[in-house]
Amino acid sequence: MCNCLDKPLTTRELAARWHTTPGALATRRSEGKPMPRGFRIGKFWHYYLEDIQQFEQERMVGDG
Predict the structure, then answer these.
(1) Looking only at Cα atoms, what is the longest distance across the chain?
(2) 41 pairs with which residues across the strands?
(3) For residue 33, what are the CA distances in angstroms to 25, 29, 47, 52?
């Protein structure tokens, strides 16, 4: 049985989550801007949901 938390998201999936484009994420990576921890397989980047959520939580501004 697949645990969705174990399946890494692609750059395209992360871009959809953040309402941006894969190209914008590639630019962020190449410019050295903060990104969630990721890994490459060939030319494709992948990100674990746990790392994305941690990255988002660390950058939240205020909480109400």
Answers:
(1) 42
(2) 44
(3) 9, 6, 16, 15
Environment class of 9 (CB within 10 Å of its CB; exposed 0-12, middle 13-18, buried 19+):
buried
Q: What's the CA gap between 30 and 42, in Å, rounded?
A: 16
> How confident is the model over 54-63, as pLDDT tens digits?
999 999 865 5
What is the per-residue pLDDT for 4? 58
Q: How far apart are CA 2 and CA 30, in angstroms?
A: 32
CB 3 within 8 A of CB 49: no
CB of 19 within 8 A of CB of 59? Answer: no
